[in-house]
Design goal:
The protein has about 90 residues and is of the alpha+beta class. The protein is about 25% helix and about 30% strand. The protein has one domain: Alpha-Beta Plaits (2-Layer Sandwich). The chain has two helices and four strands; from the N terminus they run βαββαβ. Strands 2-3-1-4 form a four-stranded antiparallel β-sheet. A hairpin with a 6-residue loop joins strand 2 and strand 3. The protein is globular, with a radius of gyration of 14 Å. It starts with 16 loop residues before the first strand and ends with a strand.
Length: about 90
């Protein structure tokens, strides 16, 4: 069960659906490499989001079509484990 806004309500999604992962890292090129390596066979969009106040971190929005809960979770875990990604939201 996923916790949303400190409640125990499960997120109900209708698949397939577009899903956006916010990926955070140290440089844009590294985040682009992570996306290419993870989704080389799938269409996705990757657009800049924010840069931290001191410029140490950059975030980008990575959006793609996911077909089910297992796929959505797998992509999250794969991105989270990538060497160029510091955090996935």
């Amino acid at each position: 069960m996923e916790i949303i806004n400190d409640s125990k309500e499960k997120l109900e999604l209708n698949y397939p659906c577009m899903w956006c992962y916010k990926i955070v890292g140290y440089e844009r090129a590294g985040l682009e490499i992570a996306a290419i390596e993870t989704f080389s066979q799938r269409p996705y969009s990757l657009v800049p989001s924010n840069t931290s106040k001191n410029g140490k971190y950059i975030s980008m929005n990575l959006e793609l079509l996911v077909h089910n809960e297992d796929e959505r979770t797998f992509f999250y875990e794969t991105l989270k484990a990538h060497v160029h990604i510091k955090m996935v939201l």
